[in-house]
Amino acid sequence: MYSLLNTLFVGKVYHQKEESSSTNDELAEMVQKYPKTEGMILQAVSQYRGRGQRGRHWISEKGLNLTFSVLLIPEFLRANEVFLLNQIASLAIHEALTKLTILKFSIKWPNDILYKGSKIAGILIENQLSGQKISQTIVGIGLNVNQMDFPPLDRPATSLSLISEKKWDLQYVMAEIAISLEKYYLMAKAGNYKPIRASYHHQLYLLEKEAKFQCGNHIIQGIIIGVSNEGLLRIKMANETKEFDIREVHFLE
């Protein structure tokens, strides 16, 4: 057991495993057996079946990167406000990386973190609902930290070590993410949604730039003008502005 410092609750209960198929899956199993402790973290030194958006796998070299999951109990959020959790998690990683490196990162909708177009972190959020309330959320985070080589991927990957030319202490980096995650989560709990949504909007990848997207069997061209409160990507095209969910569109840039 290890307790992260400088937080009120995120990481105060901490478990580490040498190997895990998926920290999201294993944390979900743990909370079925033990009392739910909000902020509990499960970290894996090696994760061999990590999942990302659209069913993709998260590839991580053993012992070099961060793969961990955090339990939240956001009962203050309604089901139609669920995208706020994506924004909180994305901003937490974005803020932590910016603080650590003083470099500029961006958030690729809905919740990938990029550096100069290369992916450095991904997030998988899984929610449970009770009526119209969110009763449980598991935030899975994969962050490339000390890995130097990556296999060919749909989008180029990078790491903290590659962009900063130094080796990082994994626990220190995770602690910084925990601090930022708690900060934005408590802002949401206090009802301060507007600054969270504004910060997320400001950090969006390709915001207000012409880009190409795959939409079903068609390629469309347009300008990202933002994201709705429900998490739909808003793209302005020649004659109209349309909103898309994650299943309908993906980036070609």
Average pLDDT level: 91
Q: In total, how many domains does the architecture comprise?
A: 2
Helix/strand structural class: alpha+beta
The main β sheet shows up as:
7 strands, mixed
Any idea of the CATH class of the largest domain?
Alpha Beta
Shape descriptor? globular
Into which percentage range does the β-strand content fall? Answer: 25-35%
Query: Helical residue percent?
Result: 25-40%
Radius of gyration: 18 Å
Q: Tell me the quaternary state.
A: single chain
Query: Order of strands side by side in the largest beta sheet?
Result: 1-2-3-7-6-5-4
Question: How many angstroms does the end-to-end distance come to?
Answer: 43 Å
Number of DSSP helical runs: 5
Topology pattern, helix = H, strand = E: EHEEHEEEEHHHEEEEE
Which CATH architecture of the largest domain? 2-Layer Sandwich
Number of strands: 12
Description:
The chain is α+β, with helices and mostly antiparallel strands and 253 residues long. The longest helix is centred in the C-terminal third of the chain and has 20 residues, at 170-189. The protein starts with 13 loop residues before the first strand and ends with a strand. The chain folds into two domains: 14-202, 2-Layer Sandwich (BirA Bifunctional Protein, domain 2); 210-251, Roll (SH3 type barrels), CATH 2.30.30. Helix 2 packs across helix 4 and helix 2 crosses helix 5 (193-202). It has five helices and twelve strands. Strand 10 (233-236) and strand 11 (241-244) form a beta hairpin.
Spell out the blueprint of helices and strands.
Blueprint: E1 14-20, H1 23-33, E2 41-47, E3 66-72, H2 83-101, E4 106-108, E5 112-115, E6 118-130, E7 133-143, H3 160-164, H4 170-189, H5 193-202, E8 210-215, E9 218-227, E10 233-236, E11 241-244, E12 250-251
Parallel strand pairs: 1-2
Antiparallel strand pairs: 2-3, 3-7, 4-5, 5-6, 6-7, 8-9, 8-12, 9-10, 10-11
Helix pairs in contact: 2-4, 2-5
